[in-house]
């Protein structure tokens, strides 16, 4: 009986093991299949994410109006090949910057008629330079309203926003949006202390063409507003005005604020860039010393010029590099 019971038990255990073994094999096969599927899915998603990241990166680089830094001498060799007199002159100028001024890299700026405004604002934002002192004392959002209503400048309706033609009654509302964009972004970026984070914010901002143009139009309007105030002071013989305004208003093409707007400001961003008088005015209003290396003037006293030529010691300094006084790059020391 004991032997019979032992044999029966062994047979039962064998049958149970066979069933369990089958289930285990099926379970293992299922787990292997799931693992293989998950691995393939992970690989597929990783490749998809990589492609999407590369696409976004290419798109960002393509839209970025201020490119990443490149080697100065490498850029010079690519741009000025050959043995013409001009090519040799430019290569020598770049070598002078490299060896004597310790400029090792440059950032290329999109070549359009906002170029100089873009190069200046990008450096102000990327360096975290705060609002100029006079902007801290006024609400710049109210400047369009003050110019239109308090000072009766109805001709502001003829203001042009770069490539966009006259907006008529809509000019006032659009100017206010431009001022809001400038104030919001300047405040946010200058308050960011981390250099890398601030750089990422600048890259995002300067890859958005619509926001960029609003920044530049806001700066143009601030220039106009200050010219109006200086003109009123001069006309009413109040406190003396800065010689920059005297120089600007002495020109036949900008003898008053309206002619300054119609003959100069309206075309900036569309068909012309800032000239040297306006670049000095820009530096004065933003309270920055703009140092420009003019490569076409290499070996002359005008090779390195400051705008404005008179500035305060506490002002921050930014640098520009130009080959033709029209398009500007950003030198990096």
Brief synopsis:
This protein has 333 residues and is an alpha+beta fold. It has helices at 2-63, 72-79, 85-100, 115-126, 133-137, 143-150, 170-190, 195-205, 209-235, 243-249, 257-263, 276-286, and strands spanning 66-71, 105-109, 288-294, 304-307, 316-322, 328-332. The protein has a six-stranded mixed sheet.
Attribute tags:
membrane, single chain, 6-stranded mixed β-sheet, 333 residues, alpha+beta, 2 domains
Model description:
It contains 12 helices and 6 strands. The chain is α+β, with helices and mostly antiparallel strands and 333 residues long. It folds into 2 domains: 63 residues; 267 residues, no CATH class. A hairpin with a 5-residue loop joins strand 5 and strand 6. Helix 2 runs antiparallel to helix 3. It is elongated. The termini are far apart. This is Inactive ubiquitin thioesterase FAM105A. Keywords: Cytoplasm, Membrane, Transmembrane, Transmembrane helix. It is found in: Cytoplasm.
- How much of the residues is beta strand, in percent? 5-15%
Query: Can you give the mean pLDDT?
Result: 89
Helix percent reads 55-70%
Assembly context of the chains: single chain
Shape: elongated
Give the structural class. Answer: alpha+beta
Give the CA-CA distance, first to last residue.
100 Å
Q: What can be said about the biggest beta sheet?
A: 6 strands, mixed
**What letter string, H or E per element, gives the SSE order?**
HEHHEHHHHHHHHHEEEE
Work out the radius of gyration. 32 Å
Our count of helices gives 12
Q: Can you tell me the residue ranges where pLDDT is under 50 for at least 5 consecutive residues?
A: none
Strand order of the largest sheet: 1-2-6-5-3-4
Query: How many structural domains are formed by the residues?
Result: 2
| DSSP summary, beta strand count | 6
């Amino acid at each position: 009986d004991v032997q019979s019971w032992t044999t029966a038990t062994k047979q039962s255990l064998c049958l149970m093991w066979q069933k369990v073994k089958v289930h285990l094999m099926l379970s293992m096969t299922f787990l292997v299949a799931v693992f293989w599927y998950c691995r393939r899915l992970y690989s597929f998603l990783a490749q998809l994410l990589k492609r999407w990241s590369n696409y976004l990166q290419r798109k960002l680089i393509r839209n970025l109006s201020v490119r990443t830094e490149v080697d100065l001498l490498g850029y010079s060799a690519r741009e000025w090949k050959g043995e013409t007199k001009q090519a040799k002159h430019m290569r020598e100028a770049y070598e002078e910057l490299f060896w004597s001024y310790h400029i090792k890299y440059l950032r290329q700026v999109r070549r359009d008629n906002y170029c100089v405004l873009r190069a200046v604002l990008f450096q102000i934002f990327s360096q975290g330079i705060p609002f100029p002192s006079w902007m801290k004392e006024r609400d710049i959002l109210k400047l369009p309203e003050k110019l239109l209503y308090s000072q009766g400048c109805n001709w502001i309706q003829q203001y042009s926003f770069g490539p966009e033609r006259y907006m008529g009654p809509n000019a006032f509302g659009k100017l206010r949006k431009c001022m809001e964009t400038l104030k919001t972004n300047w405040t946010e970026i200058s308050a960011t202390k981390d250099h890398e984070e601030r750089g990422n914010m600048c890259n995002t901002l300067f890859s958005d063409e619509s926001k960029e143009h609003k920044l530049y139009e806001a700066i143009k309007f601030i220039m106009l507003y200050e010219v109006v105030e200086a003109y009123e002071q001069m006309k009413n013989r109040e406190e003396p005005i800065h010689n920059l305004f005297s120089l600007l208003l002495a020109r036949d093409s900008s003898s008053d604020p309206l002619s300054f707007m119609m003959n100069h400001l309206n075309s900036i961003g569309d068909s012309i860039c800032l000239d040297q008088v306006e670049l000095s005015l820009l530096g004065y209003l933003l309270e920055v010393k703009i140092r420009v290396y003019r490569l076409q003037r290499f070996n002359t006293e005008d090779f390195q010029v400051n705008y404005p030529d008179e500035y305060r010691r506490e002002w921050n300094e930014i640098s520009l590099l130009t080959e033709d006084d029209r398009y500007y790059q950003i030198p990096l020391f």
